[in-house]
Amino acid sequence: MSIVVTGGAGFIGSNFILEWLAHSDETVINIDCLSYAGNLSNLQSLQDDRRHMLKVVNINDRDEVAKILDQYQPRAVLNLAAESHVDRSIHSPAAFIETNILGTFSLLEAVRAYWNELAAEEKKGFRFLQVSTDEVYGSLAAADAAFNESNQYQPNSPYSASKAASDHLVRAYHHTYGLPVLTTNCSNNYGPLQFPEKLIPLIIHNALAEKPLPIYGDGLQIRDWLHVSDHCSAIRRVLEKGRTGEVYNIGGNSEMTNIDIVRAICALLDQRKPRLSGSYADLIEYVADRPGHDRRYAIDSNKLQEEFSWQPLETFTSGLEKTVSWYLSNAAWVEEVSNGDYLQWTKTQYS
Ligand code: NAD
Ligand code: TYD
Q1: Residues 3 and 74: beta-carbon distance below 8 Å
Q2: Which residues pair with 2 in a beta bridge?
Q3: Secondary structure of the chain: what % helix, strand, coil (to 5)?
Q4: CATH number, position 65
Q5: How large is the average pLDDT for residues 199-206?
Q6: pLDDT confidence bin for 264, thresholds 50/70/90
Q7: In this structure, which of 99, 175, 288, 295 has its CB flanked by the most CB atoms within 10 Å?
Q8: Closest by alpha carbon to 254, among 316, 300, 307?
Q9: Among the bound ligands, the one closest to the CA of 101
Q10: Number of domains, the chain
């Protein structure tokens, strides 16, 4: 038995594969084109592990994907490959259309053709799991109830619009062709191996380099945060028990403002690696707001909790402590990923 994971060299994908192989001996075929966000060193510990097979292939390459499916006959395909950073989607939306919409379409076509040829029993057991985001639901006002699975899709950024489009395609492939799909919509993840373009690793990285800590607008935007290990356990649970055609929201019950997160990171760094003088919080700098910045995301994950007794194991406090420790102990990883493309990106976004 085997599963295919797309985007398995990225942040969530690599955490998922490492956790999967810690729990199971089932082979993982990792389809990843190694974009700027894909990093082989995330999977270095699996270098000699025959249960992990990396295929450096773009999900838009339908023929290559079809060959992989034919060769390995997976019982499931989990789609994590994506362009994932909102700010990049504002500067350069085309790549988001290319991968998130056209890539998912191409992948679905390859999977549909493969699935159609399976014997009845395998056909029934097969799953296509789409890993999506809470951002497809749009933005909440302070007093609004958290997003549940029946909220209308109201995406506001090119990133969330492209993810919404791919989710719609996945839904349509179930409704039209009967493909056994599952969709998860998760809140903001944080944890080890996250590229330092996203808020939490960016703040840790900048603080340690004595660079300004950029807060967009008033810093009072709210996100729900989930440690990546809890996201991975929820995906495993949905893959195992989810009802096909259903959507499952995944969240951490941890709504935080951006400024509170940045202050919490500074306080942890002040304890663990004090500056020569003053606090890391002295580096906080308010900068121009992100265009179209969503004010608040919050996730109601009662369906997942009630149906599968899933609970996040990390609180935001325990998860952030572990994350800061990981970045402090893995300076070489951060150094390696903060190379040419990263420097170019920070110049484009922050100068
Ligand atoms: P990431 O940017 O860290 O990794 C994406 C991976 O996909 C990289 O390894 C990249 O090389 C690969 N990839 C990109 N385009 C590809 C293509 N055309 N073909 C093959 N591989 C390609 O992203 P992430 O944060 O790990 O997110 C993974 C998934 O989870 C995405 O679908 C994202 O929308 C979703 N998600 C992320 C979060 C979050 O907070 N990071 C929250 C909810 C949902
Ligand atoms: P991010 O990590 O990019 O995730 P998303 O936009 O998908 O929620 O950003 C999280 C929040 O932090 C978001 O409200 C934007 C804000 N932010 C900053 O204030 N400064 C920054 O430099 C970055 C990258 C994000």
Answers
A1: yes
A2: 27
A3: 50, 15, 35
A4: 3.40.50.720
A5: 98
A6: very high
A7: 99
A8: 316
A9: 1
A10: 1
User: How many angstroms does the Cα of residue 259 sit away from the middle of ligand 2?
Assistant: 11
324 — pLDDT class (breaks 50, 70, 90): very high
Instruction: Dump strand ranges (E) for 97-187.
Output: 127-133, 181-186
What pLDDT shows up at residue 193? 98
- As a whole number of angstroms, the distance between CA 236 and CA 241 comes to 9
Answer whether residue 321 is part of any domain.
no
Tell me the pLDDT band of 170, cut-offs 50, 70 and 90: very high
Q: Is residue 173's pLDDT more than 90? A: yes
Ligand nearest to the CA of 249: 1
Verdict on whether the full-model pTM lies above 0.85: yes
Residue 267 within any structural domain of the chain: no
Reported as a single tens digit per residue, the pLDDT across 218-231 is: 999 999 999 999 99
Mutate to test the pocket of ligand 1, among 4, 5, 6, 11 (most ligand atoms within 8 A of CB): 11
Contact 5, 18 (CB under 8 A): no
User: What long-range pairs does 304-308 form, CB within 8 A, spacing at least 24?
Assistant: 304/234, 304/237, 304/238, 304/248, 304/249, 304/250, 307/241, 308/237, 308/238, 308/241
Domain that holds residue 46: 2-191+226-253+296-314
Q: Which two tokens stand for residue 294?
A: 């969503």
User: Which segment of 80-84, 178-182, 334-338 scores lowest on mean pLDDT?
Assistant: 334-338
